[in-house]
Structure formats: structure tokens, C-alpha cells
Design brief:
The chain is mostly beta strands. It has 2 helices and 10 strands; from the N terminus they run E-E-E-H-E-E-E-E-E-E-E-H. A 7-stranded mixed beta sheet has the order 6-7-8-9-4-3-10. A 3-stranded antiparallel beta sheet has the order 1-2-5, with no helix packed on it. The N and C termini lie close together (about 10 Å).
């Protein structure tokens, strides 16, 4: 889906623009996403060339693992980005997009690590883990 979209953190200290194709939304249930968001994360992604930071006063990057960093706002604490620096894309937490986004949730990943207090009952595909190779080959 090719769109022109904008998004931000809660307080507006970080704002961004997208001028390109967004991947459908994927829900990640891994332990790191649980710890950074308080639940699971729903994210889309875009090619870096189609992504522009408009305002980054509050932006802070945290290296959460080898080659992966997470972007959040130092002022309001909002989680915004997941960035594997070896991929041509950057993941954007879908809830930070200005609405309407026109996106749809299409699958759940790392379901083996999901928290015990909820069930996934929406009927969407559920993966044990995540295949970066398959995503890159599909242009995601």
C-alpha cells in the first residue's frame, strides 16, 4: 500500500513522515516487545528512503540487541521504532501513525513467548519466531 502518512509520539517531540509503501501490520509477542510496550507490539515497516524524521527533539535510540535498536521519546516515553540496521526498512509502531492509516493486522509472531494473561483468538496466522530472510525477499 503506497501512502503519504505522518505520525508522532504522544507529546509531539518526535514526528515523522512516510512517502511510500507500508507493510501490513504484524503483532510481535516477544519478550523484548512486552518489556518495552507493556504488552505486545503492532508494527508496520517502510523502506528507509521513504521515511523522514520531521522532528526528533525527543528521540532516543536504545540498543536492545546486536544490530537492533529501538526508538522512543525521552519526553513522553512513547515507543516509536524498531530498527535492524542491516535491513533496508525501519519498523514503525502502528499506533503512532496518524489515523486513519488504512492498514490491517495480518499475523502474529513470536507467539511462543506471549504473556500468559491473554489468548490470540482473531484467527490470523501465528508464527513461532520471525523469518527476516523471508521478509526481506518479499520486500518487507
Amino acid at each position: 500500500m503506497t501512502i503519504n502518512a505522518t505520525g508522532s509520539c504522544l507529546c509531539g517531540a518526535v514526528k515523522y513522515r512516510i512517502m511510500g509503501s507500508l507493510r501490513p501490520v504484524v503483532a510481535c509477542h516477544c519478550g523484548q516487545c512486552q518489556k518495552t510496550s507493556g504488552h505486545h507490539v503492532a508494527a508496520t515497516s517502510v523502506n528507509r528512503k521513504d521515511f523522514e524524521l520531521l522532528k526528533e527533539r525527543g528521540l532516543k535510540w536504545f540498543s536492545s540487541s546486536l544490530r537492533v535498536r529501538r526508538g522512543f521519546c525521552l519526553e513522553c516515553g512513547g515507543n516509536l521504532f524498531w530498527d535492524n540496521t542491516e535491513l533496508p526498512t525501519i519498523s514503525i509502531f502502528a499506533g503512532t501513525l496518524d489515523q486513519p492509516s488504512g492498514l490491517q493486522l495480518v499475523e502474529h509472531i513470536y507467539v511462543e513467548a506471549k504473556a500468559d494473561y491473554y489468548e490470540i483468538t482473531d484467527g490470523l496466522p501465528q508464527r513461532q519466531g520471525f523469518s527476516i530472510t523471508a521478509r526481506v525477499e518479499n520486500g518487507e
